[in-house]
Amino acid sequence: MNIRSKIILVVLPIIIVTLFLAEAASYFAAVNGITRIARQFLSFKAGELEKYAENQWDLLTENNFAGRPDMVAAAKNAVEYYARSIILSDTEAILALDESGGLVMSTSDLEIRPEETAPLLATLKEGSEGILTAVIGGRERIFKSFYFTPFQWYVLLTEENTSFYRDADSIRFQTIVVLAAASLLAVVMLFLFALHLTNPLARVVKTMNAIIAEGSLASRVDVEYRDETGKLASTFNHMIGELEKAYTQIKRYAFDAVLAGKKEQRIRQIFQKYVPKDVIDKCFTTQGSMLKIGEDRNLSILFSDIRGFTTISEKFKNNPEDLVESLNRYFSGQVDIIMNRNGIVDKYIGDAIMAFWGAPVNHDDDALQSVLSGLDMIDALKTFNDQQKKLGKPDFQIGIGINYGLVTVGNIGSERKMDYTVIGDEVNLASRMEGLTKTYRAELLITESIYNQIQRPSSPNLKGGPRLPCRLLDKVAVKGKKEGVRIYTVKRSLTEAEEKAWVYHNQGMELYFNRDFPGASKRFEEALSLLPGDFNAASLLERCREYAANPPSGDWDGVEVMKTK
After folding, report:
1. pTM
2. What is the mean pLDDT of residues 27-31?
3. Left, alpha or beta for 262 (phi > 0: left; psi -120 to 50: alpha)?
4. Contacts of 113 (CB under 8 A, 6+ apart)
């Protein structure tokens, strides 16, 4: 065993063990202290809240108000107000449960899930003292509880486990950092000490530096000793000989790598204007194999168009630069929405936008993201129009159509000009949906295929909430097609009146397709009573009354054939 190894093996363990023991002792002392204080503080707050509740009850009993429900309710409200006043963090919450486990008071939006109620109530009824742990609202929480008899409440002062032990975790991290830094410093110092003891190696290093500075692979290190330094010099000489043979090849590889890096950087700078960053990253990791000449895929396609753009253009006749500026602001907001939801902006068609989801990278929620993009685009248009009004410029109104289906996607074009785009009947149907927004006076229309995607049981929900509400408007055969497709409008949320009216409307549509025109008429009338002046309900009511008076032929299937685009 050489001298350096002996130095390291003898000294380093002593230093590391000493540092570890010192840091461990400091860590456990600090953590125990902080945890004890946190637990005592939580218990103190619980005691103060219990005292306050008892004081409120004493006021009721002293004034003979204990039998009045309104005064009892006021006392409960006072307890809740006091509970809110002693909350110190966003993750802290104070709850109260009744005898059945129902939540009767909460200082936050925290909800107890049904599966959590029984074990939590069992723990509370055991009457255990001290700090307890339970899963509340899907998260493990620390809590201190007490039972307040007058209200028959189980009161819980809770804090998220991670927040409760945040300071302890911080100390743990700091301890690890300090220990690592001290260990690293010890290693460095030990290395310097060993280097000093092995001074003969300095002459070998000096020769190595001379070779690097001169850049001559012809130089060699003199082998002066038969110990480790001599072996190092001999090995280095052998390495230089091998490097000299591969020098030319190494330079070529380095040059090629530099060129490839610059080329990738240029491609990224250009492509990021059209495609989300994660798509570009995946393209490079798969060496461009994603951008195939053509393949069939199920995609979601969106078309958006500005209504009455010719009329708007005429208003800018004397100031075309203002029109360009307004369009640029409009496109900037709309395109950002599409790309932020993993969409690809295929092209601009005059004042229209064509985009798609699912290629070259597909996601489980492509259909949902396309619909959410459409809703976001409508919301963003309101902000845009507010700014237009401030600038004294006309509003923009848009129509959006979305479809989901099998299309051909890939690099399409000639050798001199290629586009990564999508083609097929489903693309045309998406375009027709955008056109039908004018017919059905809707800002957003989706096809039945999109509806099935966002309503299927495995479809991701909107922020974990309910599925997007949809309203069936008709079954149409677009121009050039004989087969009908159901079309829907969709919103992010509904008013109470809209929620009831949409249920009646959808029921009416099913009755309509089943040729029960009187029954359908009744449903549309109910929808109209909730939404007076609703265009689609009124149109379908008129259609039902006409069919009730003059029944359609036996082969009628409810399809409305569109004569125009």
Report:
1. 0.54
2. 63
3. alpha
4. 137, 138
